[in-house]
Amino acid sequence: MKEKSNLAKGVHSYDVTIGGTLIPFFNRNVSEYPTEAGSVSFELVPVTQQKDIMINHARIYAQQEYDRIMELVSVLQKQADSIKRRLEVTDAVHAAVYQFSPVMGHSYWLAWDNRKEQMILIHEGPNDWSSGAPVDYVYQVQVKYMGDHTWMEL
Questions:
Q1: How far apart are CA 80 and CA 70, in angstroms?
Q2: How far apart are CA 58 and CA 139, in angstroms?
Q3: Which pLDDT tens digit goes with each residue over 120-142?
Q4: Strand, helix or coil at 93?
Q5: Strands 151-153, 21-27: pairing kind
């Protein structure tokens, strides 16, 4: 039964008396159930189930994005470690003693000279000597002189 007053002042809402009780702001558009005889019946939306589905989709998507970002972080970490190692090798070569001009693109050896107690940069590797490597040399690492004036470990 429709009342004359409309406390809610809504276009689609009205006050109604049901069982002798005044119900202000009755709006059939937002009701969870049919409000009039002859209304179309419908099932209630399982809100909890819908929320569970939505949160599961959100978690799956977020996890995929997280995994993708962590793969990128891993690649960047490897690149950073490689550059750091290259700088360490470059510093070691520049601290070494040598009596020649290195040629870009060529490889050399860093070795510790026990007799002189210093790091040296030499052309010959441990297997390049015809009579065997000098006993005073302790080979550390083979390096290559790069075009950007850094040294890369081989």
A1: 15
A2: 56
A3: 999 998 888 888 888 999 999 99
A4: helix
A5: unpaired
